[in-house]
Amino acid sequence: MKTPHEIKRALAVCCGSQEFYEHWSKALIYTEGVKLLVELTDAYWLLDVVASYQGKKLAEAVKRGFQIWLLRVDLVEQTALITCVGSNEHGTEVLVEQALEYTDFPLDRIELWVELGERLTLQLPSEH
């Protein structure tokens, strides 16, 4: 696994995406930047978490706006909180909160967005 500095430096150049990858569940596709993130951090589980919540409630949130997924990590305790906020014409609301009792994710926070295009697309904010 790379150091946090190496990961941030690698992700800093991600803007836009030429290729998209389909999650095994077929619930969403994800960008080159997200693929790079999960490869550098060995966090394929993060894709699974986001995909697992793509049911009716979250799909409705995306039709009216988009989802913001935030992973906040306590690097000392090695615990984390994953939050999904839906953004639409009426403002924002918390749609999901999931605590992780253990993680070795090396960054203290990462933000991902889900947007509706041809398909639900998981991306880094810089790829929007």
Describe what this molecule looks like in 3D.
- The protein is built from four helices and seven strands; from the N terminus they run αββαααβββββ.
- By secondary structure, it is α+β, with helices and mostly antiparallel strands.
- The chain has a single domain (4-127), classed as Nuclear Transport Factor 2, Chain: A (Roll), CATH 3.10.450.
- A seven-stranded mixed sheet has the order 1-2-7-6-3-4-5.
- The longest helix has 10 residues, at 32-41.
Features:
128 residues, 7-stranded mixed β-sheet, 7 strands, 28% helix, 37% strand
Write the layout of secondary structure elements.
Blueprint: H1 4-11, E1 20-22, E2 29-31, H2 32-41, H3 44-52, H4 56-64, E3 66-74, E4 79-88, E5 91-100, E6 109-116, E7 120-123
Parallel strand pairs: 2-7
Antiparallel strand pairs: 1-2, 3-4, 3-6, 4-5, 6-7
CATH class: Alpha Beta
Largest sheet descriptor: 7 strands, mixed
Question: Distance N terminus to C terminus?
Answer: 26 Å
Radius of gyration: 14 Å
Largest sheet strand order? 1-2-7-6-3-4-5
Number of helices: 4
The ordered string of helix (H) and strand (E) elements is HEEHHHEEEEE
The CATH topology is Nuclear Transport Factor 2, Chain: A
In brief:
This protein has helices spanning 4-11, 32-41, 44-52, 56-64, and strands spanning 20-22, 29-31, 66-74, 79-88, 91-100, 109-116, 120-123. With 128 residues, the chain is of the alpha+beta class. The chain has a single domain, classed as Nuclear Transport Factor 2, Chain: A (Roll).
